[in-house]
Amino acid sequence: MSQPARALRAPEPSARPEPAVTPRPRPVPARPRAVALQRRRRHVGFLILFSVIVGSAVLGLAALYALLAQSSFRVDDLQQRIEALSRENLELTRWQASLSAPGRIAAWARSHGMRLPDDIRFLHVPAAGSAAPAGDADHPHARSAP
Amino acid sequence: MRRPPIGRLVALFAALALAFGAITVRLAVLQVSQAGAYQTLALDQRLQTVSLPAWRGQIVDRSGEPLAITLPARDVYADPRYVIDPWGTAVEVSSVLGTPVRELLPKLRADATFVYLARQVDLWTAERVERLGLPGIGFLPTTWRSYPAGTLGSQVLGFVGVDGVGLAGLELEHQSLLAGHPGERTQELGRDGQPIVGGIDGERPPASGSDLVTTIDREFQFQVQAALEEAVEANDAAGGTVIVMDPRTGDVYAMASYPWFDPNDFVNAKPSTMRNRAVTDVFEPGSVNKVITAAAVVEERALPLHRRLSVAWKMSVGEFTIHDAHRHPVQPMTLGDIVAQSSNIGAVLVARRLGEVRMAAYLSEFGLGRTTGIGFPGESPGLMLPLYLWSDTSLATMAYGQGIAVTPLQMISVYSTIANDGVSVQPRLVRGHVDEGGTFHAAPAPVTRRVVSADTARMVTRMLAYAVKAGTGTAAQIPGYDVAGKTGTARIPRATGGYYTDQAIAAFIGFLPASDPTVVIAAILDRPVTVYGGVAAAPLFQDVARYAIERLSIAPGRPLRPPPHALPAR
Lengths: 146, 570
Prior knowledge:
The complex is a heterodimer. By secondary structure, chain A is mainly α. Chain A has a domain at about 35-100. Helix content of chain A is about 55%, strand content about 0%. Chain B is α+β, with helices and mostly antiparallel strands. Chain B has two domains: about 50-215, Alpha-Beta Complex (Penicillin-binding protein 2a (Domain 2)); about 220-430 and about 445-550, 3-Layer(aba) Sandwich (Beta-lactamase), CATH 3.40.710. Chain B is elongated and about 150 Å long. The model of chain B has no long low-confidence stretch (mean pLDDT about 90). The interface of A and B includes residues 65, 68, 93 and 106 of A.
């Protein structure tokens, strides 16, 4: 046989303990849409700036190398021109030397009927103060030999 | 739910980790510890260093006219492995190069990877071959030495081999000066052989050779060669030599030996024509050597100049009999007459008054028996017996120029000494050189040495002038000028002993104007049919001297008094 239930005493209103105050969690403000948007915009902006800087750098390097390549081709081209002109200069020098070679000129002269005279005499114009003709040992102005 | 196979996963993970770890370690070894070595290997593969040949300097005459010049050229080669049609290729290449097909065909069919078809081909001809577009034909850059004036001065200039090295003459003597220093170029090349842009590209430029400035006068050299060739043909001689020099400076204006050769085609030239006989070959000088005897007698006062000796046509010396060139009665002769008439007997008589010791000394003082130091490869010192080997006939024979062997250069140096008031000036062929920057560097001043006094030199000059005016050298006279010189008709020794009776070396060596010599000329003909120096060589001297007067604007000078003489002038 069960015992009769103890009658539950209803809590006295005045003696009811104060319920423990549980700190209310701080309300998490709902993230506004505008702030999220702003942050997203800043990320994108940074990415764009970064891309522009890096892209510019890459383009600049590529342009520099292209310029170097172009310059090296130009230098190469100029060197080839210098070598070609040097070769031409040498060839012209040789040509001039062969054209002015005494043998060639003498042969040309002979082929055109020119010849050296059989007898060649020399006339010397005496210097001022000297009246002795060439080789005249009996001339009164001729000095005696040593 | 089944449990995942943890063990197997761990095992797989461990295996993968091990593999990747090994790769990582290997990577670290390659990229870190062995990085340097592999970098070096890779760089070595890409780097190519080629030698940049130095440009050979020119040889120019005293006025700067080019006598030898280097030009760019190409060697044409073939790789027979890639020659598709040897016969067709040979025909086409032959039509451009001019080389016979029968010479090209075996090369194009050869079991080889590289054969030369032609060396040192000029650029235009090489371009024509290149335009044919023949497979297996390639080209290499090279140089080609050109001598624009052809045979002019060929024995003096020498020539250069296919590899650009001097092989004879001044090209050989001044090889290091002319050759310069090769450079090198180092480049990083890609797989296709093209330079890598931005890669290593360094160059040490070659230093071109210096230009050699000779003492040779191009125009004078030509005239000398023309006159020499004409004289050889007119006298039906075997050859000849002419030298022209300035007695005051030692400059050699012209030097030629006939026959000569073309250095542009030295491969096909006879070796005997390549020798510069003026410097390398010796001959017994004969009577031109009497100038030394006379100078020694005057210097030593061994015979008063007015003293007359009784000179017969012949005399005995030891077991031999010597005689003058022409029979004559016993004649009174002074030293001046002996020189003018070129008396062998007279020369022996005066030489005996000198004695062997003094005669040997003066022969040596005048430079016989040693090289002149002109700076030419193969210069001969001549042949002169040392005094202790002289026989009882040596004094006599050397007095008139037999029993001794000299080069033409040595003999002209003797006369140059007399012409220069007794002072010997070392002959030279080079005035200096012009370096890559265009600066001229003069050659060291030639060595000078007094041999006899100025008074002796002038007295001997009077004797030599008298020899031309009234002696054996009248064929060398030039109207309006006093020419001083001596004829020589030297017998040629046989290899078996003795001398040829019908062959001689004819010579005339002299200078003008006698009172103030500007130029000395040696004219020598080898075995002319006319035999005598006064007949064969003196006219050659005259031809060259006429041109010298014109070329060098030589004034006549003062007339000289004849030396003491007893014989009437001819």
